[in-house]
TrEMBL record:
PROSITE patterns tied to this protein: HTH_LUXR_1 (PS00622), HTH_LUXR_2 (PS50043), RESPONSE_REGULATORY (PS50110)
Highest taxon of source: Bacteria
Keywords carried by this UniProt record: DNA-binding, Phosphoprotein, Transcription, Transcription regulation
Name of the protein described by the UniProt record: Response regulator
SMART domains reported for this sequence: HTH_LUXR, REC
HTH luxR-type domain boundaries: 151-216
SUPFAM superfamilies: C-terminal effector domain of the bipartite response regulators, CheY-like
Species name: Streptomyces incanus
Keyword Aminoacyl-tRNA synthetase found: no
Residue span, Response regulatory domain: 4-122
Chain positions found as 4-aspartylphosphate: D55
Length: 223
């Protein structure tokens, strides 16, 4: 089954470029386009895409609110949202991740990186490249906890090993990389990640990473 993709960007030329790249792949099908967040909502309902490639800055409804509407809990099997950013830095990227986006990608990323990101997000993983994540969170360091604040009560529900896994997720490591770091199987890591998400009431690994930084568990630039 091909991965069904909806392109959302207010610049037609960019949508055309993305379409050309994606339609060259046998396992990806572009099922529609939208020029703003309101159109995106309608297209998601009508076309049922697997992945929405979402611009942030658009007229009428921006990508943050559109992401929130598309990935909301009232939807059955919501589409995954992959946010596009010019990375000047878009100040709305963190809000998009909180709203339920499964990751973010630079608009000038190489074609193969765009294709891989869509495959990763469609498979239910988070597109959380460590280098981009660190730049994003370093940019927001002044807005994140200093580390002196009380630890949220929800964090105490995690076991020591689950806390270790959460820290590594926040650094952008994949399940395989976490398994190698902790000398456990990848299946064990998947189980720990699932427990972390369930206990903290989080949607996916991206929200887990944001939580780790906002709670003060991990600091920008820390290893």
């Amino acid at each position: 089954m091909a991965i069904r993709v909806l392109l959302v960007d207010d610049q037609p030329l960019l949508r055309t470029g993305f379409r050309m790249i994606l339609e060259a792949e046998q396992d990806i099908a572009v099922v529609g386009e939208a020029g703003d967040g309101l159109q995106a909502q309608d297209q998601v309902r009508a076309l049922q895409p697997d992945v929405v490639l979402m611009d942030i800055r658009m007229p009428r409804m921006d990508g943050v609110e559109a992401t929130r509407q598309i990935t909301g809990p009232e939807r059955d099997g919501p589409a995954k949202v992959l946010v596009l950013t010019t990375f000047d830095l878009d100040e709305y990227v963190v809000e998009a991740l909180r709203a339920g986006a499964s990751g973010f990608l630079l608009k000038d990323a190489p074609a193969d990186e765009l294709v891989q990101a869509i495959r990763v997000v469609a498979a239910g993983e988070a597109m959380l490249a460590p280098s981009i994540t660190r730049r994003l969170l370093d940019k927001y360091a002044t807005h994140l906890p200093s580390g002196d604040e009380p630890v949220p009560d929800t964090l105490h529900t995690l076991t020591d090993r689950e806390v270790e896994v959460l820290k590594l997720v926040a650094r952008g490591l994949s399940n395989a990389e976490i398994a190698a770091d902790l000398f456990v199987s990848e299946t064990t890591v998947k189980t720990h990640v699932g427990h972390v998400l369930t206990k903290l009431g989080l949607r996916d690994r991206v929200q887990a990473a944001v939580y780790a930084y906002e709670s003060g568990l991990v600091r920008p630039g820390a290893q």
